[in-house]
Amino acid sequence: MLIEIYRQMRHRLVAFVPRFSPDAAATRRFPTILGTGFVVHEDGLIATNQHVIDLICRLPRPEGFKGWPAMAMFFILTEKGMVNVSIEIMGIAGFSKFSPQQFYYGPPKPDLGFVQVKARGLLPVKLRPHGTMYEEGEEVATAGFPMGTDHLTVPG
Questions:
Q1: Most exposed residue of 2, 73, 74, 87, measured as fewest CB within 10 angstroms of its CB?
Q2: What is the mean pLDDT of the chain?
Q3: Average pLDDT in the 64-85 region?
């Protein structure tokens, strides 16, 4: 069952990669993944973590460059293999303050942020309705690149 869910999810997952890299040869092999996210709206809204947004904001930019120093990358499986599609980032948003309601046991500010990409017609993830409880023994999985790029390539 989890494999079927992953097959539905994989084209909704996004990797954030630097737009500029000092090591062009390494970038051609496989781009450095700064973090991941998932599509939450078909008009290009991606949910990610605040720590990913912080990394994007700290990336160096060439002198005079006005855009974001990172790109959103989708990995699309085709009949001929994996294709990576890079999409421009249009904007980034995070929480400047957070005031939880009722019972909240998380960190003072959630590690959550959003990225707007220059794309429409994306496939959003269908989230479980608010307040829906998990059942004991229910399968749960994660998807993305939580360990970065290093585990996706072999040494040398």
A1: 2
A2: 85
A3: 89
